[in-house]
Structures are given as structure tokens and as C-alpha cells.
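Obj: model holo form, ligand = NAP.
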Amino acid sequence: MKILLIGASGTIGKKLQENLSQRHEIVTAGRNSGDIRVDISAVESIKNLFEQLSGIDACICTAGSGYQGNFQTMTEADLLPSLKGKLLGQVNVVLIGQHFLNENGSFTVTSGILADDPAKNSACGALISGALNSFVFAASLELKREIRINAVSPGIVEDSFEQYGHEFPGFNPVPMTKVINAYLKSVEGVSNGQILKVYG
Ligand SMILES: NC(=O)c1ccc[n+]([C@@H]2O[C@H](COP(=O)([O-])OP(=O)(O)OC[C@H]3O[C@@H](n4cnc5c(N)ncnc54)[C@H](OP(=O)(O)O)[C@@H]3O)[C@@H](O)[C@H]2O)c1
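Output (holo C-alpha cells):
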């Protein structure tokens, strides 16, 4: 398969690229990294990305993040960059990319455990991941040409635990191999409209 991986330089993206490149042709993309530059928070940039590509069978997005901050002082301005990036960015990758993907292709977006199990200061991440999961369910009913879509919803992966673990007390670190397997199930398997939860 020819696979577009947006966010390939990240903690999850790096490991995913390592695995997928053993069997597939991978095109990587990111704001400051990858074969092609894209900022998923900008619609024109996403259009430009897909217009440069042809013959993509699978598009995986592991780009974006959710704002972490005190709920009592949280403002719209705090939320907007994450909403434009991780939420609308991935939604727009699907809305635009659907016209470019090969028949029988697939989208895999990344949500996260906060949709189901929010931690302190994580209302933004919870909002984004919950919305993404609902979008995936609806999009799976609408996409044409046998194109599938799933979300991988990771817990805090073990590779990130040293950096972020203290912000998620009581959360179990999730083995990266399990997270990678969820992406493989989405891309190489037959799942459609699924939220592939890897919560440890
Ligand atoms: N790590 C975890 O434990 C964990 C747990 C649950 C959910 N998640 C979710 O999984 C996804 C990946 O996490 P991660 O830890 O691998 O993230 P990460 O290490 O911060 O990597 C993010 C990647 O996305 C790219 N990127 C960021 N914003 C972008 C934008 N606007 N346009 C294009 N590319 C962009 C970055 O590259 P450039 O800087 O070059 O753009 C980088 O390659 C995120 O949605 C995160 O919320 C992660």
C-alpha cells in the first residue's frame, strides 16, 4: 500500500513509520518534518498536500495535541489552537482527502483516552477526542468508494510516560506495540467506523 502518515516525526508516528515501512511505501508529512510539509490547522495547506500526491491507499494522522490547563481559568483562546489542530485539522484531512484517496482506501485519525476517562486539566483533550470519535462514526456512514475510517484512541503510551505521566496520576502506561497494532488493525484490516481503544 501507499500510505500517507501525517505526524511521522512524533512519539507515536516514529514507531508507526518504522513498522509500516517494512511492508508499505510511506509518504511522511508534518509542519517541520517529513517528505512533504503540511499544517493541518490550515485548509489550504491540506489541499496543497493532497494535490501533490497520487495513488494514496491509506491516510493516517498522528498529528496534534490537546491543551492542558486549569478549568477555572480556561478560555476559548486557550482551546482554539488545539481545536484548529487536532480536531478540525483531522476532520479537514478527511473532508478534503476523501476526494483523493484510492477506492477501498482508509483514514485513521487519532483521538485518545480522555474522551472516556478525563484527567484533571484535560477538558480540552476530552472535548476533542469525544468529538473526533463521533465524527468517525458519522463519517463511516457517509464515505463513498468503499473508503473506511477509524480512530485509534490511545492511553498514555509508555514512551511518553516520563514526560507526561505525572499529569495523569493513576493512568496505566500503554505498551507502544499495542498502540501500533491498533493502527495496523485500522489500515491493514477491515474495521470501519470503529474507535480502537488501547487503554492498558
Ligand atoms: N503520546 C501519548 O501518550 C498519547 C496518548 C493519547 C493520545 N495521543 C495522541 O496521539 C497523537 C500523537 O501523539 P504523539 O505523542 O506522537 O505527538 P507528538 O510527539 O507531539 O508528535 C506530533 C506530530 O505531529 C506533527 N504535527 C503537530 N501539529 C501539526 C500540524 N498542525 N500539522 C501537521 N503536523 C503536525 C509533529 O511534527 P511537526 O512538529 O513537524 O509538525 C509531530 O510529528 C496526538 O493526537 C496525541 O494527542 C498521544
